[in-house]
Design a protein that fits this description.
It is found in: Cell membrane. The protein is an all-alpha fold. The protein has helices at residues 15-46, 55-92, 96-131, 138-151, 153-168, 173-195, 206-229, 245-277, 281-317, 321-355, 364-378, 381-396, 401-423, 442-466; strands at 426-428, 434-436. β1 (426-428) and β2 (434-436) form a beta hairpin.
């Protein structure tokens, strides 16, 4: 079967052109997503609740909520990575019918896992929040804010899985249109649910996440519409929309290690957050605001990771591993430059960036804690670029086990032990007694993160340089 004309497998273009063609829609999409997240933080920081003493509690709760909402995208990896890798391989080999079969199975899996996660999530949410050690009443506020996100989770799973299939086919524009549209639509929705309008009641801070959940639900329906009508040679078809165990196993064989990797990152990030939350509401708020701005770097790197995943997978499917490597290195070089520029912005503009979320005099301790950590992470941008972009390239090749191992090394052997050492005055080692910690506060936690990123960045650079990913079978 011939490859549809709108699928980006034109090898006559240079690697730079091919990376840009795939990356720019995702870059725009990620910029809009970031803008929506920053708007949510702006709302939480600039609208005082009736009880001013609750202001820091709401901001600390939102920091935890946004961490957990980000974890949803990690859960979606259970379907999306295998779908992207298989669709890209089939498209590169000219087997569009098989790519179509994968797409239908991907949506079936998204529906199944989305419903399952909603049921378990709503049941266990109070226990999860308790583990994160938020001070009262931030813990109760976080539960209230997360409930809408979890309730509508199935639509976000469909949204991300469908976009992953289209990305594997080399068509990143639907992702830009849908996720970018979700981000743009999210801003007025958050405003309306926060303040209320006409017969719509004011939900207050819970309206922030309710607006986001409704926006993603609409995005999921739009993705279904794209696939029902057909896009980039992919379409949902009644004859294919039934479980095919062999294909499901192939998707999960690639996705499960990637999901373990992503969920390990999410779990360790939440563990790390629990250490920050113990430092107090000001530290938790400063941490969340700095992470929000760090997203300028993270999300721009994700755009080039998406391009790397699609191009590496397509070229391996076309049996052209050398071109796959060239595309991967090109994506890394371009992404590193972009993220380094973001790092310069963090260093030079840290204080006004954080003051945007904390305009009141009583919030000065938050700014004082946040400025040093945002300036520190500016120097980690090249290492973070290697982690993000080479993870995408390796996943496009189906090499999902090494990123998982690197994650465990980085978090369990480096970040978490150092975070305890740098943030605690004493560390209880059980039967081994106690040791004295450095008690550096929030900056200590971010030094632990910085060292972890530097070491993992080097590991990913080495893995992609080795070329072992070229021999992975999916």
């Amino acid at each position: 079967m011939s490859i549809p004309e709108n699928i980006n497998v034109d090898s006559s273009r240079s690697p730079v052109e091919r990376v840009l063609l795939l990356a720019w829609p995702v870059l725009l999409q990620q910029a809009l997503i970031l803008a929506a997240g920053l708007y949510d933080r702006w709302v939480a920081g600039n609208y005082l609740p009736s009880d001013e003493n609750l202001h820091s509690s709401y901001q600390a709760a939102l920091s935890t909520v946004q961490y957990l909402a980000w974890s949803i995208s990690c859960f979606a990896v259970l379907v999306s990575v295998g779908s992207t890798a298989l669709v890209a391989r089939f498209i590169g080999a000219g087997e569009v019918e098989d790519a179509n079969r994968v797409t239908n199975q991907s949506i079936i899996l998204a529906i199944f896992f989305g419903i399952l996660a909603s049921l378990v999530g709503l049941w266990k949410l109070p226990d999860l929040i308790a583990l994160l050690k938020l001070d009262p009443p931030s813990d109760r506020l976080a539960i209230e804010m997360l409930q809408p996100v979890i309730l509508f989770l199935v639509f976000q799973m469909i949204e991300l899985s469908g976009i992953a299939c289209l990305t594997g086919a080399g068509d990143t524009k639907p992702g830009m249109l849908v996720l970018g549209g979700v981000a743009v639509f999210n801003i007025p929705m958050v405003y309306l649910f926060f303040h209320g309008f006409w017969i719509l009641p004011a939900f207050g801070h819970q309206g922030i996440t309710l607006g986001t959940a409704v926006s993603h639900s609409i995005g999921g329906l739009v993705v279904l519409t794209f696939l029902i009508k057909g896009r980039a040679g992919l379409s949902l078809q009644r004859r294919l929309f039934k479980p095919q165990i062999i294909l499901i196993k192939r998707i999960l064989r690639v996705s499960i290690p990637a999901a373990i990797d992503s969920l390990s990152v999410a779990a360790c990030q939440l563990w790390f957050l629990s250490l920050v939350n113990v430092l107090g509401k000001e530290a938790a708020t400063a941490h969340g605001n700095a992470i929000g701005w760090e997203g300028l770097g993270y999300l721009s790197g994700q755009a080039f990771a998406t391009a790397a995943a699609a191009l590496v997978g397509q070229n391996l499917g076309a049996r052209n591993p050398n071109e796959a490597a060239r595309c991967g290195w090109t994506a890394f070089a371009m992404g590193s430059i972009c993220m380094a520029v973001m790092g310069l912005v963090f260093y030079l503009c840290a204080e006004p960036m954080l003051r945007l979320f904390n305009p009141y005099p009583h919030q000065q301790p938050v700014i004082d804690a946040g400025v040093p950590v945002l300036r520190l992470v500016a120097f980690a941008m090249p290492a973070l670029a290697a982690i993000i972009i080479f993870t995408g390239a390796l996943r496009g090749a189906g090499d999902t086990r090494m990123p998982m191992v690197a994650t465990w090394i980085g978090f369990l052997l480096i970040r978490m032990p150092l975070a305890y050492l740098f943030t605690r005055s004493t560390i209880d080692l059980g039967s081994l007694g106690t040791i004295k910690g450095w008690n550096l506060g929030l900056i200590g936690a971010w030094w632990a993160m910085f060292i972890d990123l530097a070491i993992r960045g080097a590991l990913f650079f080495w893995r992609f340089s080795s070329g072992r990913w070229k021999k992975v079978v999916v």
